């Protein structure tokens, strides 16, 4: 990591979605978060004041587009407009969780492609670059006409499993067919086989729905996010019935909607491993939860971008795990 002197010219701002992650990133980089205030009027309108000069500076704004999604997104838009009007040298939107990413195509007639609309807004508001992590679909990078640095949490996750001894005699499980590529990528890092939950009947799930050998093995159910948690809980039920010895859930983005926390706590999972791309409120914490920080990934990426260096080093598997 660059020392404080080398990173001294970076202007790092944090909005309201994930202050804790922003503070960790700043600490990793050896810089202070810049002074700005984000206020909301009684009718919900957003007021942002930047309390120091940014003229000609390279500015990085940290904001996840997470719940409340529209409010956090508008904060990002207003902040970028303020920076553009304040003559910032470059505006870099650091978006640990890119909301609306699941609306990336028309699945039905007369349906919007909201992920593309969000990309348009970010560009129009003045962003010169987007830095994000584990997009729901990698092709979303093509929705932008500006550079996108798409970072990955998988090396941090694989390192955790190896350091914890979980990677020994383990099977990586895709909770549905859409997650097979993700599961295969983790399995390659852990040198493990994969299995797939092939759920055909919406009303039931059991060991017959597992493609692959999991009996007597530890299992990691791997996906990019946990929202309502239905398929993750179903996967745990099927794996337990199929004779798995220990079962772990792993995902990058902990959206945690509805009753998912209670369901995960009551499930067959031994641990639920997520990252801190989305701030997890106190009421959504539970005993099985383990949170890995992605602050080092973003800190390294921001420093490399600022110094006009390649971010390829972040994808060096031997260095990461």
Automatic annotation (TrEMBL):
Pathway: Metabolic intermediate biosynthesis; 5-phospho-alpha-D-ribose 1-diphosphate biosynthesis; 5-phospho-alpha-D-ribose 1-diphosphate from D-ribose 5-phosphate (route I): step 1/1
Residues the record lists as binding Mg(2+): 136, 176
Residues at the active site: 199
Binding residue positions for D-ribose 5-phosphate: 223
Catalytic activity: D-ribose 5-phosphate + ATP = 5-phospho-alpha-D-ribose 1-diphosphate + AMP + H(+)
SUPFAM superfamilies: PRTase-like
Kinase recorded as keyword: yes
Needed cofactors: Mg(2+)
Keywords: ATP-binding, Cytoplasm, Kinase, Magnesium, Metal-binding, Nucleotide biosynthesis, Nucleotide-binding, Transferase
Pfam families linked to this entry: Pribosyl_synth, Pribosyltran_N
UniProt binding sites for ATP: 43-45
PANTHER family found in the cross-reference section: RIBOSE-PHOSPHATE DIPHOSPHOKINASE FAMILY MEMBER, RIBOSE-PHOSPHATE PYROPHOSPHOKINASE 1, CHLOROPLASTIC
Subunit organization: Homohexamer.
Name used for this protein in its record: Ribose-phosphate pyrophosphokinase
Organism: Ligilactobacillus ruminis
């Amino acid at each position: 990591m660059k020392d404080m002197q080398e990173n001294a010219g970076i202007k790092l701002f944090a909005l309201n979605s994930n202050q804790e992650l922003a503070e960790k990133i700043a600490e990793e980089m050896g810089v202070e978060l810049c002074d700005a205030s984000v206020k909301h009027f009684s009718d919900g309108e957003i007021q942002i004041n930047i309390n120091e000069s940014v003229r000609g500076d390279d500015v990085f704004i940290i904001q996840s587009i997470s719940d409340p999604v529209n409010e956090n997104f508008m904060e990002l838009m207003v902040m970028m407009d303020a920076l553009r009007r304040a003559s910032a040298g470059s505006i870099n939107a650091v978006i640990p969780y890119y909301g609306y990413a699941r609306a990336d195509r028309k699945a039905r007639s007369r349906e919007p492609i909201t992920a593309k609309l969000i990309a348009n807004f970010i560009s129009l508001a003045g962003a010169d670059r987007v830095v994000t992590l584990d997009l729901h679909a990698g092709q979303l990078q093509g929705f932008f006409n500006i550079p996108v640095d798409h970072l990955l949490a998988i090396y941090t996750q694989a390192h955790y499993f190896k350091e914890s001894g979980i990677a020994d005699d383990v099977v990586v499980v895709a909770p549905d067919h859409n997650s097979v590529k993700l599961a295969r990528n983790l399995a390659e890092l852990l040198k493990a086989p994969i299995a797939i939950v092939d759920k055909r009947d919406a009303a039931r799930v059991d060991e017959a729905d597992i493609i692959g050998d999991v009996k007597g093995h530890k299992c990691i159910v791997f996906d990019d996010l946990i929202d309502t948690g239905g398929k993750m809980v179903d996967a745990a039920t099927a794996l337990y019935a199929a004779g798995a010895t220990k079962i772990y859930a792993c995902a990058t983005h902990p959206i945690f909607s509805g009753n998912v926390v209670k369901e995960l706590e009551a499930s067959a999972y031994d641990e639920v491993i997520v990252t801190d791309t989305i701030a997890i409120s106190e009421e959504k914490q539970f005993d099985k939860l383990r949170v890995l920080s992605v602050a080092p990934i973003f800190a390294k990426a921001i420093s490399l971008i600022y110094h006009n260096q390649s971010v390829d080093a972040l994808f060096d598997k031997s260095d990461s795990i």
